Amino acid sequence: MLFRSGGYYHLNDFQTVRLAYSHSRYTSKIKDFLFKNIKWVSPQNTYYVGNHFTMTWTYDKIAHGPSASINPYAGRRIEVKYNREYNDFFSDFATNNDYGTLQEIYSPYNYNRVEMNWHEYWPMPWSMKHALTLHLQAGYVDKPIDSFFNFFAGGLPGLRGYPFYSIEGRKMVVGRFTYRFPLLGFTQKRLLHLTSDRVYLAGFVDYGNAFDGPVEWNAFKTDLGINLRLSAFSFYGFPTALSLEAAYGLDTVYNQNVRYGKEWRYYATLLFDFID
Description:
Layout: E1 2-10, E2 15-29, E3 33-35, E4 38-40, E5 44-62, E6 75-96, E7 101-124, E8 127-141, E9 151-152, E10 168-169, E11 171-184, E12 190-191, E13 194-211, E14 221-234, E15 238-249, E16 253-255, E17 258-260, E18 264-271
Antiparallel strand pairs: 1-2, 2-5, 3-4, 5-6, 6-7, 7-8, 8-11, 9-10, 11-13, 12-13, 13-14, 14-15, 15-18, 16-17
């Protein structure tokens, strides 16, 4: 269950401040099972209860144009978010002596979380249709926390050459350089209910890490990859954004004695707009 409420204020045409409160409850229920011909009834477990107060500052000044969605080519977008979080996380069960039922025991995790997302776009001097992008992410939590609350630096939002949960910590720094150019400019071809618009190809390199201690640059991970984007319309009116990616992790990562990296990983998204 998630409840969220808040409001926002436009400082000017490019800057917005948002204030929000959210309440979350995560509950699990394991299916009942038979053991030695005895039916065991598993209790329903509310394992997480969170209350977050959030302030977000957004700066958005991206150059407009017919290909700005599939290939932003100039400007910047910055988002800085501060969270004050009050979390109760399940740690054990205790028996309620009055009723003989199981009662959850929670450990409190109350801390400050700061996150930043910065996109910077530069057009190339030889063509406005070619663009170089820098995407910088950073995060910091000011107290020791359970791994449930960590930043995760892998997967589609971060280092794409590694699984999402493979790299974690209460501090995070991830950077990405992307060079994107058109394979096909404006072209309208129909296939079933789809009408194509533009096709772009990109190469990217990711560099970053998530960690608990001080920054150790020699522990940062790197991956390389390619990205194919197709913008189209479904049934003539609905924007359709298809993205296909392949990334290869250049470094080896060990998490819980499981080895990651030195392999290709693939991603596909089909949305109304592109993620970045």
